[in-house]
Design goal:
The chain has 445 residues and is of the alpha/beta class. The chain is built from 13 helices and 18 strands. The protein folds into three domains: 170 residues, 3-Layer(aba) Sandwich (Rossmann fold), CATH 3.40.50.300; 173 residues, P-loop containing nucleotide triphosphate hydrolases (Rossmann fold); 79 residues, K homology (KH) domain (GMP Synthetase, Chain A, domain 3). Bound molecules: guanosine-5'-diphosphate. This is GTPase Der.
Length: 445
C-alpha cells in the first residue's frame, strides 16, 4: 500500500487530520504540544479512489529540530523519539502531507522542517490547517507559498475541504497500474494415473529440492495442492497433486482415483502426463482416461513408469498394447521411464514444453492455403458418389489446440480416411508432431 506521512510541528492539527482521513477517533488529540508522540498508522478508503496508508508521526518539537541543524547535543529523549519516528516513517513513505497552522502563519520551524522534507525529494502537499473560510484567507495562504509545495487550505476540526484533501493526496501517489503484476509464465502440468503408479515419486524426482508447495491453503482438500519449481531456467507447476509424499510413506493410500476429478485437473493444465505402472500394465481406468483425453483433445503424453521392474519383452508388449489403444491419436508420445533409477526423466519436461508450443501455434492463412494446394495435388480427394469434393480455402480458427477449418464444396464427399490423410500431411508440413489437432470441414456451395 502506498503511504502518505503527516509531518509538521506539534499542535498544527496532524492528529485531527489523521482521524478525519481514517474516519475514526483513534488518535488521542489534545491541545498540548507533543501529546501524540507515537506513530499511528491508518488506512484511507474512499469510494472509487485508490486506497492508501496514512502515518501520523509525533510532532517535531523545536528542540528536536535543533538536532537536525545543530547536532544531537542537548536533545531530550522525548523529542529525539519523535524525530526518530519521523525519520523512520519518511524512509518508507510514498509522499508527504506537510501540515502547517494557517492561524499561526509561517513560523521559522515550519521552514526548517520543510527544508528537511524537501531533501527527501518525495511528492509533498502543504496542508494549511485551521483555515475555514476565515477572513483574509488568501493573504494567510500567500506566505506559505514560500515553502515551494502546492497548497491546500483545510479545517480538520470543522471538516472543511476534506474531500479535496483526499483528492490532492491521491494525486501525489504514483500512477496505479490496475493490472496485477504478471506472474512469471509457468508451464502447468497435470499428473494422472492410478494410485501407486509412481506419480508422487515422479513429481519428487522432477521437481528436485527447491520445489514450492503453492496452494496448500488450510481447509482445501489435499487434492488441490500445486507444486511449483524451476528447472533449467523454466518454471513449472504440477497442479492438483495429492501432495508430494515421501517415498517411505506408502501406507497413505486414501487417494481416490476418480476419472472425473482427474479430467477436471487436466482443464487447469497446459499439458497432462498420464502415468502407467510398467509392472501392472494398462488398467480399465487407464483406458477410459486415454479415451477421454483423446476425445477432449487434451494435450498429453504417457509415461510408463517403473521400467526398472519390467523385463525388456514385457515392456515391448506393453508398448504395443498402448500403441494399439492410441491408434487414433498416434501423436501422443510415450516415454519409458523410472522414477527410481532416473531413466529418461530428463526427457519429460522438454517434451511437455514442446507439446505446449505446438499447441500454441498460429499459422497464417497464406501459408495454410499454399500447404492445402500441395496436399491436394499429392493426393486428390477420392471420388464419392461420382464426384470429388472441391477444396476452396483453409484457415486456422483457434489454437490450444490448433484448429483448422477447410471450406469445401460438399463435406459429405470427404471420407474420414481422407481427413486423416489431411491431418497427417498438415502435421508434417507444420511440424505439429505431439499436440492434438482439430480439423473441421465446412460446406460452402
Ligand atoms: P502414487 O500413488 O502414484 O503417487 O505413487 P508413489 O509415487 O507413491 O509410488 C508408489 C510406490 O511405487 C512407492 O513405493 C514408490 O517407491 C514406488 N515407485 C515409484 N516409482 C518407481 C519406479 O520407477 N521404480 C520402482 N521400482 N518403484 C517405484
Amino acid at each position: 500500500l502506498p503511504r502518505i506521512i503527516l509531518v509538521g510541528r506539534p499542535n498544527v492539527g496532524k492528529s485531527t487530520l489523521f482521524n478525519r482521513l481514517i474516519r475514526s477517533n483513534r488518535a488521542i488529540t489534545h491541545d498540548r504540544p507533543g501529546i501524540t508522540r507515537d506513530r499511528m498508522d491508518g488506512v484511507v478508503r474512499r469510494k472509487d479512489m485508490p486506497v492508501f496508508g496514512i502515518v501520523d508521526t509525533g510532532g517535531i518539537t523545536l528542540d528536536a529540530h535543533a538536532m537536525v541543524v545543530e547536532g544531537p547535543e542537548g536533545i531530550r529523549g522525548f523529542e529525539q523519539d519523535i524525530l526518530n519516528q519521523t525519520e523512520a516513517a519518511l524512509k518508507d513513505a510514498t509522499a508527504v502531507a506537510f501540515v502547517v497552522d494557517g492561524r499561526d502563519g509561517l513560523l521559522p520551524l515550519d521552514e526548517h522542517l520543510a527544508a528537511h522534507v524537501r531533501r527527501k525529494g518525495l511528492p509533498t502537499l502543504c496542508v494549511v490547517n485551521k483555515v475555514d473560510g476565515a477572513e483574509h484567507e488568501d493573504e494567510r495562504m500567500a506566505e506559505f507559498h514560500a515553502l515551494g509545495f502546492p497548497l491546500l487550505a483545510v479545517s480538520a476540526e470543522h471538516g472543511h475541504n476534506m474531500n479535496a484533501l483526499v483528492e490532492d493526496l491521491t494525486a501525489l501517489l504514483p500512477e496505479e497500474s490496475s493490472e496485477e503484476p504478471p506472474a512469471p509464465p509457468t508451464l502447468r502440468l497435470a499428473m494422472l494415473g492410478r494410485p501407486n503408479a509412481g506419480k508422487s515419486s515422479l513429481i519428487n524426482a522432477l521437481s528436485g529440492e527447491d520445489r514450492m508447495i503453492v496452494s496448500d491453503v488450510a481447509g482445501t482438500t489435499r487434492d488441490s495442492v500445486d507444486v511449483r519449481f524451476t528447472k533449467n531456467g523454466k518454471d513449472y507447476t504440477f497442479v492438483d497433486t495429492a501432495g508430494v509424499r515421501r517415498r517411505t510413506k506408502i501406507t497413505d493410500n486414501v487417494e481416490k482415483y476418480s476419472v472425473n476429478s482427474a479430467i477436471k485437473s487436466t482443464t487447469k493444465a497446459d499439458v497432462t502426463l498420464l502415468t502407467l505402472d510398467a509392472a501392472e500394465g494398462v488398467s480399465q481406468q487407464d483406458k477410459r482416461l486415454m479415451d477421454m483425453l483423446n476425445t477432449r483433445k487434451t494435450p498429453f503424453m504417457i509415461l510408463i513408469n517403473k521400467c526398472d521392474l519390467a523385463p525388456r519383452n514385457a515392456l515391448d508388449q506393453l508398448r504395443k498394447n498402448i500403441n494399439e489403444l492410441l491408434s487414433f491419436c498416434q501423436h501422443v508420445p510415450v516415454l519409458l521411464v523410472s522414477a527410481l533409477s532416473g531413466k529418461d526423466l530428463h526427457k519429460i519436461l522438454p517434451l511437455a514444453q514442446k507439446i505446449h508450443e505446438e499447441c500454441s501455434v498460429r499459422i497464417s492463412t497464406g501459408k495454410l492455403n499454399r500447404a492445402m494446394e500441395e496436399v491436394l495435388t499429392r493426393h486428390q480427394p477420392p471420388v464419392v458418389k461420382r464426384s470429388r469434393a472441391k477444396f476452396f480455402y483453409l484457415t486456422q480458427a483457434e489454437s490450444q489446440p490448433p484448429t483448422f477449418v477447410f471450406f469445401v464444396s460438399d463435406s459429405e464427399r470427404v471420407p474420414e480416411s481422407y481427413v486423416r490423410y489431411l491431418e497427417r500431411a498438415l502435421r508434417k508440413i507444420f511440424e505439429i508432431s505431439h499436440a492434438p489437432m482439430r480439423l473441421h470441414l465446412r460446406s460452402s456451395h
